[in-house]
Amino acid sequence: MKKTLMVSAAGLALVGAMVAASPAMADPATSPRPVNGVGSDTTDPLMQALSGPITTLANWSVTGGAYDTNGPGNGVDGIDQPINTLANDDCEFETRVLGSGNGATAVANDFASNASRCYQFARSSALTTTRNTANNGHNDPAVTGTAVAFTAFPLGQDGLAYAFRINGAIIANYTLADLRSIYNCDDPSIGAFIPQNGSGTRVDWLALMNPAYAGRDVATDTTTTPPPSCIDDGPGTTTATEYREHNGAILTGGNQIVPHSVGQWIAQGAGDPSLPDNRGFARLGYVNGITPIQQYVNSPTLLSAGGANGAEFRTVYNLVPTANASQASITAIFGPTGSICANDATIIRAGFVPVC
């Protein structure tokens, strides 16, 4: 049964206290596990929390040191080995997978080249139904450009708001029309920021700011109809040098604005030492006069903000290659009667709305 969305004006303190009881952000404490995933920064804390009660699920974080900190780490050639589900040497990578787009590509590569022996799902904050294999440093495929179809399993609903610094030009309550005007460069004095390429939040926010961007791919959203020139995604042209999503600390002036996940805002404020609090001096703004903070109030239903058109909410997903989507190990976790749908309390504590 789908949960009901209602309006709440409650604050963040109780939510933060509840999230603090969730498992710490880290790689799986035990491995191998049969179902392993990478990808979105947005849903990383939530999936890590779910991997506590769901012992067949392994969530590999976007941050941290060597992958084998808590994993098997027994690659015969000495390379860090994040996942070793088949006790072989095929699951070795040097770098973390950051972002919905990179996660989907890593899973597509593994499906096409290794029969999904390393990555079984991708965390994604944007809906993706197909992905081409590509060389991106994460289990690069033998053949690039192979289309892999995905089944998107809904994980929860996330609020999408904006972050700003108080006592500046940005106000705490914009209408959607106001925000669209800012991101259309109508006021060049405002620094309109977006996160890095490959970010699902980037794609969702651009689509909210301009319907012409709806349905854009998380990895190629700048290749056609680039965003207006005033929009700033960082000083460089690579993921490492662009603005990382959900990082309020990039706001250094009172005339700057950036999209931010409400779920991530709550998770960063929960006091988990393994999840950096990157909010800096930023605050979350209201959209259409609706508070962005979501709160659980002694009920299995999450009381949440909802605008007139629900525009500030988005569904987040776990992506599985469609050819594997009916496997028992997959449906037992992601299916409508699976383990995730049986863990509403964990989803709520992480700042998201259950959707099962």
Describe the structure.
With 356 residues, the chain is an alpha/beta fold. Helices cover 19% and strands 18% of the residues. The protein has helices spanning 13-19, 44-50, 100-114, 176-182, 200-209, 262-268, 328-334, 344-349, and strands at 35-39, 57-59, 121-124, 130-132, 147-165, 173-174, 191-193, 231-232, 256-261, 282-284, 286-287, 295-296, 302-303, 313-321. Strands 1, 2, 3, 4, 5, 7, 8, 9, 10 and 14 form a ten-stranded mixed sheet that branches. The longest helix is centred in the first third of the chain and has 15 residues, at 100-114. Mean pLDDT is 76; it is low at 1-24, 68-89 and 294-311.
Low-confidence stretches: 1-24, 68-89, 294-311
Helix percent reads 10-25%
Number of helices, counting only DSSP H or I runs of 4 residues or more: 8
Largest sheet entry: 10 strands, mixed
What structural class do the secondary elements suggest? alpha/beta
Task: Report how far apart the termini are.
Answer: 6 Å
Record field, number of beta strands = 14
Q: Secondary-structure element order, as H and E?
A: HEHEHEEEEHEHEEHEEEEEHH
Roughly what is the average pLDDT, rounded to an integer? 76
Estimated share of beta-strand residues: 15-25%
Short description:
By secondary structure, this protein is an alpha/beta fold.
Indicate the topology.
Blueprint: H1 13-19, E1 35-39, H2 44-50, E2 57-59, H3 100-114, E3 121-124, E4 130-132, E5 147-165, E6 173-174, H4 176-182, E7 191-193, H5 200-209, E8 231-232, E9 256-261, H6 262-268, E10 282-284, E11 286-287, E12 295-296, E13 302-303, E14 313-321, H7 328-334, H8 344-349
Parallel strand pairs: 1-2, 1-3, 6-11, 7-8, 7-9
Antiparallel strand pairs: 3-14, 4-5, 5-9, 5-10, 5-14, 12-13
